[in-house]
Design a protein that fits this description.
It is built from 17 helices and no strands. It is an all-alpha fold and 445 residues long. Helix 1 packs antiparallel against helix 2, helix 1 packs antiparallel against helix 10 and helix 10 crosses helix 13. It has one domain. The two termini are 34 Å apart.
Amino acid sequence: MKRSRIQLSDHFTYGRLLRFTMPSILMMIFTSIYGVVDGFFVSNYVGALPFSALNLAMPFIMILAAIGFMFGSGGTALVSMELGMGHRERACEIFSLIIYTLIILGTILSVIGYVFAEPVLRLLGATDEMLPYAILYTRINMVGQVAFMLQYLFQSFMVTAERPKMGLAVTIAAGVTNMFLDWLFVGVLGAGLAGAAWATVASQTVGGLIPLVYFILPNHTKLRIGKTHMDGRALLKVCTNGSSELLSNAASSLVGMLYNHQLLVYAGSDGVAAYGVIMYVNYIFVGIYFGYTVGIAPVIGYHYGARNRDELKNIFRKSMKMILTASVALSVLAKLSTGLLVHIFVSYDAGLTAMTVHGFRIYSTAFLFMGFNIFGSGFFTALNNGLLSAILSFMRTVVLQVGSILVLPLLFGLDGLWSVIVVSDGICLILTSCLLACNRKRYGY
């Protein structure tokens, strides 16, 4: 007997939670994996210097892409709440307005990013040797930046439209495109860093345009792109709801820039390369937490809009238990697989391999805390409380991480830099727990 499609309005058991969120979890993991492919081919086929330049440029690229996260998470919270309230037509109007606004804003930001790539990269600390590579990679990426933003936006809205499996299929299509073209351009044709960048642009185009066409054409979901009107209040709500995701991603990029600066001081270009490898592996593990949060957010928003407090309480309790289990499992797995994962990227350099393995073994302890902080921020976003979500993101990614990056290396040297995320996420977990406890009666979870 064929299983019925899970809907936002359903009651969620552990099995239904896993079935509904698993496509989003796999989507985030796969996104992380195919993002890692660039690093693999550049590191192994082009060299350590272009690899360091890629890692230096990536925070700037991701700051712009964070606009897509903001519109996706903030828009999902508002649209799913409207659906829960039974306002389908208004939900579609807001959805359409979000898409049109993002395309216009993304185009403007892409042009700005292309024009000002050189001064920004110099500001980030690019050396004369790294600068040409960093500029090349950044400017090519600006070509696909709008599609990149749309890709991240639709990862959230595919779940809201009750099509998480389609979202996963699109992500896989984009990933396979990236992997194949990385192999062809870099591994076979020897196109170097430019080849890796164009492979990324092609994959972003696939990931952004397929969902765009799907929602423009007639479909069987509750959402479709069509006529709309300017609604400043709705856009403001979307931006405030998603401000934590924008802040988190933008701040993470800024923190990455500061991290790279400190690493250049304490360990040179090898330190930047080691940090790049750690981040690639980190994205895969953290993708599980983000995937679950993206997958469950529309459900939370829907039941909040429908004033179904019993289901909110059910979802919250089950989510906390699942995150606890995942946190312990991922932390242990990271410790056991460190050598193998690092060896994939930098096996050509024994010294760099040793530095990266040592750094990641310290860093991976943070997986015990990250999941709760990521879910806590996403939970408040889904409840349309952008303020509390932004407070958590600001404290975690700005105050605590920046403070740790500046202070810990003074006390512990390079090991202090590898410990930054452990300390900042550990402290933030206390704040997350307090905010969740203090607001339980207000929202009824």
